[in-house]
Write a structure and sequence with these properties.
Length: about 180
């Protein structure tokens, strides 16, 4: 459902970009790129700090919600409220990153799966590791993007997309064995 909704909204966005001759600007805006992150362009990310603190304070409730609605309700959790808070936090932080940097694929998909394979499903212990490993992965991909055809820079979404796709396929085929 999320992918379908994203594609519908993306199609509407593409329609308006085409209608008003904004295709190139829209493409540049949505493409993940750190070269435009300069002083005055990244300060909006400071708004994510309280959201991260809220996410860490809800980590136990998110773990309970991950057990399923029946189990978490039987343990006294307001399942709908916790899932709505979680979805809101993820949506707000993701939108802040996309506004600042652009779209960055695969990081939210592969890094948490790698950490849960490595450390198990304890969300309290995994959240800091996921954050550090995700930041390290993005930093490594940014360095690769800057070195491949230096002095030019390949957009970060392209580098992460290629490396992330390889890792994602490896994780899928690894689980099927």
């Amino acid at each position: 459902v999320g992918i379908m909704l994203g594609n519908v909204i993306g199609s509407i966005t593409d329609f308006f970009a085409y209608k008003y001759n904004l295709n190139q600007s829209m493409g540049a805006f949505l493409q993940g790129n750190f070269s435009t992150v300069l002083k005055g362009n990244y300060e909006i990310l400071y708004l994510s700090i309280p959201l991260v603190i809220i996410a860490f304070s809800y980590v136990h409730k998110f773990t309970l919600a991950g057990m399923g609605e029946e189990m978490s309700v039987s343990l006294g959790l307001n399942y709908k409220r916790v899932t709505n808070i979680g979805i809101t936090i993820v949506a707000l932080i993701s939108s802040l990153v996309v506004i600042t940097v652009g779209s960055i694929p695969f990081v939210g998909l592969i890094i948490p799966n790698i950490v849960s394979i490595w450390k198990g499903d304890n969300l309290k212990n995994n959240m800091p590791i996921v954050a550090l490993l995700g930041a390290s992965f993005v930093l490594a991909c940014d360095i690769i993007s800057r070195l491949i055809i230096a002095p030019y820079e390949i957009p970060i979404d392209l580098t992460i997309g290629v490396i992330g796709a390889v890792i994602f396929l490896y994780l899928i085929f690894r689980r099927n064995k």
